[in-house]
Automatic annotation (TrEMBL):
Residues 172-478, 196-456 form the Helicase ATP-binding domain. NCBIfam families: DpdJ. This is DEAD/DEAH box helicase. It comes from Paraburkholderia largidicola. Keywords: ATP-binding, Hydrolase, Nucleotide-binding. PANTHER family: ATP-DEPENDENT HELICASE LHR-RELATED (PTHR47962:SF5), ATP-DEPENDENT HELICASE LHR-RELATED-RELATED (PTHR47962).
């Protein structure tokens, strides 16, 4: 939507002002404000800009002067006049901040305020919530919409010759607003799609573009225009466009938009005698009939009316709820009625029941891939998809939205689904995909759809079609660990504030005020966290859980009212005066509307101002009102995070916020330190593992169901395979039958022959009704109960007969095989593997299993053990949903209350989610497996920090006994009883009660697991090659697979739970750690599972004495070992653990102790040993306290303030104890002690962990179709079934799901065909990563900018980027800088470019900073050499936090520095400038993640000496290089070239062309060399050529 001249000028003026402010905000300086002169100078620059001259002279422009422009910004609430600081500056001229700058300031100053903190001074005692932040403001980038109507029609006329179709397109274009246009990529996509439809050409078109770019329009304009034309020419009812969506929320959102677009063709169609376009929606909440909608799951009903969950009133300005009314049951057509305005939508425009669609298929069918998968065999609905005799034609066009989501095994499942559908429907359709920009999109889309590459085209905006417009704000917040307020509190307060930084709902308008939006989304990765956030946010806004105002507890409104503006400026300066949100238009006493969207709560309330969501809402929900997205904790998946981020800013010109709230621990800390990768992540290429046997086996079963659907679609029984093979019929009503009638009914079933069912159908139905009793039971008709049961069992008989026919008749089996091959589009040899080979062969497993269940009515050995049923066919062969895996055995969760519904989760997930002692709100209420309040009180009465207790697991679980397992405890083997939990008996967590503890819902618990892996049968052994260095550490690799009849036995049992409890008795808070050891009848026990899974056993060949075998002459290796070992000791040193039980406290103490030791050693010129000793004996307490203040960035407090630094107090008390200092000194011994035999255990464990992580990475790289999330690495296989322990070092890489998922099979194929490849990828994983390369190159750049090797050309290029006055100029200058860096030998890959931009190229960065950073790095290197340890980035930030040169650099730039706590500010600035390196960087790049054991850090430098030694590379600039290369290839089968980077463009093509085109002569063979890898090494590029192993 084009803006008016006034709004365009205001937008550009705001850009100018924000760019000035951002230069201070990126350095943590939030108190700067713009003076009157600065504002007017900036506004005059905007008015005098040549590009704005046309706007100024537009007749609609009302802005003539800078004053007019400023008044416009004020009227739009873009800038605000702010009060002067309470510090008493003499300047009283107006001071200004933009909404952006004030928002960052208020968020950075957030406190956890409650009613007791109300008033002018009490706020100072409220806990601070934000310790630090990282901020980025950048221009948004959009495709230009410069294609006006005539230009669009010119392109369309070239592609389409049909005048009627042209007319339909022109009719839609004529309804565009004045001056509106389309983007070039939209026009190109529309033209290609129309051309394909017009000429009936099967083709694929992938439309790729960013969020909010208009991809959807690029599809629906041509699709709907074509349907409109078809409606006129051929009014027959059939689905012409099939729109497939991966998520239901996306489907519902797009439905409303397309319904509106369809209406634009009404006049055109009706003037030509046609009926209006009709849309249908088919997914789980689509009711069967209008009457069933009154009781349909997902529809909120009161008996008289039922609210539609997927459609709201389409009348402009309404958006009310649409309902089905019981009073309309006699109407000829289905219809929805708006509760607000009475507007009606009838089924001639929207088919919202399955019955309506089955009778008259809609033109456009909205459905999900899951619905398509289930209904290919449904005789009632399959014609909607163009299948079967009732289908007039197949859909001409298939839309696949959010294509980039179809990756991994889920993507492969969908790809095979499309092949099955395309085969069944006759292969007559074209495909259109809409996607975020992905690499190799064309190839990926062809693979997904099954189309040939040659008929697929990707259309996306070109770089010269992109413009910079407006801005977006990215903010990473680090929660304050000092106050020990829960991170959820930070997220809640962030949402309360950020939602009020948006416009009120009545001010937002997509045309006249599109800049800020009015709705915020909050995302979490866990349902439990989402429910906590939702409930607590409701309470903070003064609402009950129902959403109604809680006027008894909060009579005056929610907690936001505590920030109402006061005259006192000190509270404003402290960030606790929200007058700017008030000026925006928010009344702080008004409670925000809060809603929730998760897997258990679908839909988005139209009135909600904040929506708390999980992954259910992250895809494609196009709400134009969303202006803020908040992510709680580090996102688990970067692609998912990008989807979430894209929910804000869907309206052109909106300035969206993305905020990530992080802790200072674990993954969150790493994410915060590497904030640049959060702000600008890189998506890898999508992978479709179509050759994965796991996927193929499941798809062969789905294809079998399709085949059965084809065989039975005309059967009078109405057989629906998905329904009729899911389990036995419900026999509850048969209990009310007369016994002799029931016996006769069963005899009817027994005597009916399958071949005669069709002929006897009517007679059987009449007989069943005659035998049935009359009347009703609880709303169910007893008279029809017999026919329902008999019909289902006859269907079972019919299906059993068909399957039997396939097995016993060779011709029938061959026909089935040919059909399955066609449906799956795979070679016959691959199909034969699926039919006959283990695991889960179709003809030897799935078909006999189905026959047994159909014949026996799912009866097992006895009535107590029925056969396996799970609500869908063959659950041991296929999952219910395409995105699910064949899961572990499930555990029932029995919720408290007689009427409570039961829930099921995979046993592994359920055990972790409800670990004893953990309070979960997964099901809203605070539930746990725990003890009574009285027992908790007795724990507290023990006055112990940690309480250890035996716990009988029979009190918590209903269990089934399994084989016992053994554990080594001390030097003794202890036998444990093993149980598989069938049911967990959840209870309400103890609530408030007089004199008894009330348990907090933040109470958490971790299970302690015992894992045992072994191969009961001999697997397939692979010996490592001898010529690759790292292979010396491997004895053999042994594959244990189902296909090889040697699956591994995986047993995992939880044997204890550690609960960190927070309780309250009255007004007193208590914290307690409880260790529960699991027992049953007094014997040690475990609860868990055992499965047979495919696994790879890696037998290691580690030297006997690693501390002697490792080459410690490499100083870098010594420093790395000490750093890694110290991190380990901080959590596992026995004396430290005994003295400080809390692991988080230990981590902080160890970090503070190390920083203080480095500072003491540096300032006093002491050895590190002496410094550690002086800290331990208490001689340097002032240094410990100083580090504590600096690292935690604690604000200074004024007299009388109550500082809420609970963690700081705890640390101060701990460090004041000699026992604690001596304990941490014991842990720190590894920083200075010799590396001797005492290190052996740690070295062996770390090397196993590192090799395990490297092997997993090698598998992922060598077998890209393997999903690493489906594999798990164990470096301790545990004691075997026979009670013996392995006598060798072993690593196991096993599949997480039972039965063989195909991933280890791919590794077996790799080891059998290309063994060298695996080991070379292991070595590649153990080499420097891109993160380390970024570190190396950044340090080199710092040296060029401010060090001894200063490069004037680079300095000038960097300063031009920093001083660029517009995003366009900055991009152009960055391109020049990038070229300069490449010429000097740097590799400017994505990760490096992002780090460079965010850390070194911040706008307005002073040159003095470059010199300081260069000095810090030089000092950093010297300190590491001096003390023989790696030094963490925080240490260097602490060392230089007292250096005032940082202040001088910023003051010289005209910035205002913080008035107090300057050292903490410097620490924060340096943390944003410097970057993590050393052990932390290496460990995060090569992680070993195993949810069943505590994290073990890897350290690749320990293994460096075992890697293949780098041979002297060939210099191609020297004469004779070709002869040298041939000699090396003949002698060693490989050759390595080193090319200086700035010569690469000249030499590399020549080398590749020569070696790959001209053969190498091996005796009587001519063999061509292949380019096996290209690597970056410092300022050279290495090309590795090799002779293929097969040669």
């Amino acid at each position: 939507m084009a803006l008016t001249p006034d709004l365009t000028l205001a937008e550009r003026a705001l850009d100018e002002l924000e760019q000035i402010e951002a230069r201070a905000l990126v350095w943590g300086l939030v108190d700067n404000a713009l003076g009157d002169d600065e504002v007017y100078e900036a506004l005059n620059r905007v008015l005098n800009d040549k590009r704005n001259s046309e706007l100024r002279y537009d007749v609609a422009c009302n802005i003539a002067t800078a004053r007019d422009l400023r008044d416009q910004l004020v009227a739009l609430r873009m800038i605000f006049e702010i009060p002067h600081s309470h510090t008493g500056s003499g300047d009283h001229s107006p001071r200004w901040r933009t909404r952006m700058a004030e928002g960052v300031r208020l968020i950075a100053r957030l406190r956890q305020m409650f009613p007791q903190h109300a008033g002018p001074t009490q706020w100072t005692s409220a806990p601070t919530l934000v310790a630090d932040y990282r901020f980025l403001r950048r221009a948004r980038r959009y495709p230009k919409r410069d294609q006006r109507r005539d230009a669009v029609m010119s392109v369309i006329d070239t592609a389409v010759t049909d005048p009627l179709l042209r007319s339909a397109v022109a009719h839609w274009l004529d309804q565009m607003p004045p001056n509106a246009g389309m983007s070039r990529f939209q026009v190109d996509a529309a033209a290609r799609i129309l051309d394909g439809l017009h000429h009936r050409v099967r083709a694929g078109t992938l439309v790729s573009a960013g969020t909010g770019s208009g991809k959807t329009l690029a599809f629906y304009l041509p699709a709907l225009a074509w349907i409109a034309r078809q409606r006129v020419e051929s009014p027959k009812s059939s689905v012409r466009v099939l729109a497939l969506y991966p998520r239901n929320e996306l489907l519902k959102d797009q439905l409303a938009e397309v319904y509106e677009q369809c209406g634009k063709f009404d006049d055109w169609i009706s003037s030509r005698g046609g009926a209006p376009l009709r849309v249908g929606v088919l997914y789980g909440e689509t009711p069967g009939t209008r009457h069933s909608a009154l009781k349909q799951s997902g529809w909120r009903s009161n008996g008289r009316e039922s609210i539609c969950p997927f459609f709201t009133c389409p009348k402009p300005g309404c958006g009310g709820e649409m309902v089905v009314r019981a009073e309309d049951k006699e109407l000829a057509r289905d219809r929805l009625v708006c509760k607000s305005c009475g507007h009606c939508v009838e089924s001639d425009r929207l088919a919202f029941t399955r019955e309506a669609m089955a009778k008259e298929p809609p033109d456009v069918l909205f459905t999900s891939v899951e619905m398509l998968n289930r209904h290919l065999s449904n005789p009632q609905l399959r014609h909607l998809f163009g299948i079967g005799p009732k289908a007039l034609e197949a859909p001409s066009l298939v839309l696949m939205d959010e294509v980039h989501l179809y990756s991994g095994t889920y993507g492969a499942q969908v790809a095979y689904l499309m092949r099955r559908w395309w085969s069944a429907s006759g292969r007559r359709s074209s495909f259109v995909g809409l996607s975020a920009t992905i690499s190799e999109g064309r190839r990926f889309f062809a693979s997904l759809t099954g189309l040939d590459d040659s008929v697929v085209q990707e259309i996306k905006p070109l770089e010269n079609d992109i413009i910079d417009e407006g801005a977006e704000y990215l903010l990473a917040l680090r929660g304050d660990p000092v106050s020990q307020a829960a991170l959820l509190s930070t997220t809640i307060q962030t949402l309360m504030l950020s939602a009020r930084l948006l416009d009120p709902r009545n001010r937002f308008d997509k045309t006249s005020n599109p800049f800020f939006g009015w709705r915020a989304f909050a995302f979490t990765d866990q349902l439990d966290a989402a429910n906590r956030l939702f409930r607590n946010l409701l309470d903070a806004e003064g609402r009950h859980f129902s959403g109604h105002p809680n006027t008894s507890r909060y009579p005056e409104g929610g907690l936001a009212r505590l920030r109402s503006s006061l005259e006192q400026n000190r509270r404003y300066d402290g960030g606790q005066d929200w007058r700017v949100p008030e000026n925006i238009g928010h009344k702080l006493e008004t409670r925000l509307e809060i809603a929730r969207t998760t897997a258990l709560d679908s839909g988005v309330s139209a009135a909600s101002e904040v929506v708390v969501a999980t992954a259910a809402l992250e895809v494609g929900f196009d709400d134009p009102a969303v202006g803020v997205v908040v992510q709680h904790k580090a996102p688990r998946d970067i692609a998912s995070f990008l989807q979430r981020k894209g929910r804000a800013g869907r309206t052109r010109h909106m300035r969206p916020w993305t905020m990530i709230v992080l802790t200072d621990y674990g993954r969150d800390r790493l994410a915060y330190q590497a904030y640049d990768t959060l702000f600008d992540p890189e998506l890898p290429a999508r992978q479709l593992p179509l050759s994965n046997r796991y996927v193929q086996r499941m798809q062969s079963v789905y294809a079998l169901l399709d085949e059965l659907g084809d065989m039975t679609h005309t059967d009078p029984l109405g057989i629906y395979v998905w329904r009729d093979m899911k389990g036995p019929p419900d026999e509850a009503l048969l209990k009310h039958w007369e016994p002799h009638n029931l016996r006769e009914l069963r005899e009817v079933l027994k005597s009916t022959q399958p071949a005669k069912i069709s002929a006897q159908h009517n007679a059987l139905r009449i007989k069943a009704k005659q035998l049935a009793p009359k009347g009703w039971h609880r709303g169910e008709n007893l008279e029809t109960s017999g026919w329902y049961w008999l019909k289902t069992r006859l269907a079972h008989k019919r299906l059993h007969d068909l399957l039997k026919h396939v097995l016993i008749r060779q011709d029938a089996g061959e026909r089935l095989a040919a059909s399955l091959q066609k449906r799956l589009a795979i070679p016959r040899e691959d199909l034969n593997v699926l039919l006959w080979n283990h695991p889960r062969p179709l003809l030897l497993g799935a078909v006999p299993t189905a026959m047994r269940r159909l014949q026996m009515n799912w009866l097992g050995k006895d009535s107590a053990h029925p056969d396996y049923s799970a609500g869908h066919p063959l659950p041991d062969y296929i999952p219910a949903n395409l995105f699910d895996d064949l899961s572990l055995p499930e555990m029932r969760l029995a919720l408290p209350g007689e009427a409570a519904d039961d829930h099921y989760l995979p046993v592994q997930q359920a055990l972790g989610e409800f670990a004893p002692g953990k309070v979960s709100r997964r099901y809203d209420h605070a539930l746990w497996l725990g003890v009574s309040a009285q027992t908790l009180k007795s724990y507290l009465d023990m006055n112990q920090e940690i309480v250890e207790q035996d716990a009988d697991i029979g009190d918590w679980y209903q269990m089934q006994g399994e084989r016992p397992f053994h554990r080594m405890e001390g030097r003794k083997v202890v036998e444990y009883q093993a149980f598989r939990p069938r049911t967990a008996r959840l209870q309400a967590a103890p609530a408030r009660s007089a004199g008894l503890p009330e348990i907090s819902d933040t109470t958490n618990a971790q299970l302690k697991w015992s894992s045992h892996l072994e191969g009961p049968r001999d697997g397939t052994e692979f010996r490592p090659p001898e010529h690759i260095g790292v292979s010396r550490l491997f004895s053999s690799l042994v594959a244990h697979t189902h296909a090889g009849q040697s699956a591994a036995l995986i047993r995992r049992y939880a044997i204890a739970s550690r609960a960190d409890m927070r309780m309250r008795i009255g007004n007193t808070s208590h914290r307690l750690t409880v260790d529960w050891r699991f027992t049953q009848e007094g014997k040690p026990s475990g609860v868990g599972f055992e499965i047979d899974a495919d696994a790879l056993l890696i037998v290691l060949n580690l030297p006997a004495e690693l501390h002697k075998s490792i080459d410690w002459s490499d100083e870098a290796r010594v420093r790395a070992a000490r750093a890694a070992r110290y991190n380990w000791e901080a959590q596992h040193c026995p004396s430290f653990v005994e003295t400080v039980a809390n692991p988080f406290l230990r981590g902080w103490i160890a970090q503070i102790f190390q920083i203080a030791a480095i500072l003491v050693a540096t300032t006093e010129k002491l050895s590190l040993t002496v410094a550690l000793n002086e800290l331990a004996n208490g001689a340097r307490m002032e240094m410990l306290q100083g580090v504590l203040s600096t690292v935690f960035q604690m604000p200074e407090t004024e007299p009388g303030d109550e500082s809420p630094d609970r963690l700081r107090q705890a640390l101060t008390e701990a460090l004041g104890l000699e026992s604690v200092r001596l304990a941490v000194r014991d842990a720190a011994r590894v920083l200075v002690m010799p590396i001797d035999a005492e290190w052996e255990t740690w070295l062996a464990r770390t090397m196993r962990a590192t090799l395990g992580a490297a092997c997993l990475e090698a598998i992922q790289q060598a077998c890209p179709q393997v999903d690493p999330e489906g594999l798990i690495v164990d470096i301790d296989p545990g004691i075997r079934l026979d009670g013996t322990a392995p006598q060798r070092a072993e690593i196991w890489i096993s599949e997480t799901s039972p039965g063989g998922n195909g991933m280890i099979e791919q590794v077996v194929e790799l080891l059998a065909s290309r063994p060298d490849s695996f080991y070379r990828h292991v070595e590649a994983a153990l080499e420097a990563s891109d993160l380390e390369s970024t570190n190396t190159q950044l340090k080199q750049l710092v040296e060029w900018l401010g060090g001894n090797d200063r490069k004037t050309e680079i300095v000038d290029a960097v300063m031009r980027v920093r001083n660029a006055t517009s995003p366009t100029t900055a991009q152009a200058e960055f391109a020049r800088l990038r070229a300069d860096l490449v010429r000097r030998g740097q590799a400017v890959f994505h990760g490096y470019a992002v780090a460079l931009s965010l850390r070194m190229l911040r706008p307005g960065s002073p040159e003095e900073i470059d010199r300081l950073i260069a000095e810090i790095h030089d000092h950093w290197i010297r300190l590491e050499h001096l003390h023989g340890i790696e030094i963490d980035v925080r240490v260097m930030c602490a060392v230089y936090s007292s250096d005032t040169r940082l202040d001088a650099a910023f003051v010289s730039s005209g910035l205002v520095l913080p008035m107090s706590d300057r050292e903490s500010w410097r620490f924060g600035v340096l943390m944003g400038l410097l970057w993590p390196q050393g052990h932390a960087l290496r460990a995060v790049n090569l992680p070993l993640s195993n949810r069943f054991v505590p994290n073990i850090a890897t350290e690749r430098l320990l293994l460096g000496q075992w890697l293949t030694q780098r041979q002297a590379p060939i210099d191609p600039s020297q004469p004779g290089w070709l002869e040298n290369a041939r000699e090396q290839l003949i002698a060693r089968s490989e050759a390595v070239f080193a090319v200086v980077a700035d010569q690469a463009h000249e030499l590399v093509p020549t080398i590749i062309r020569t070696l790959t085109v001209e053969p190498i002569h091996f005796d009587y063979l001519n063999v061509f060399a292949t380019l096996s890898s290209v690597r970056r090494r410092d300022d050279t590029i290495e090309l590795h050529f090799s002779i293929p192993e097969s040669a």
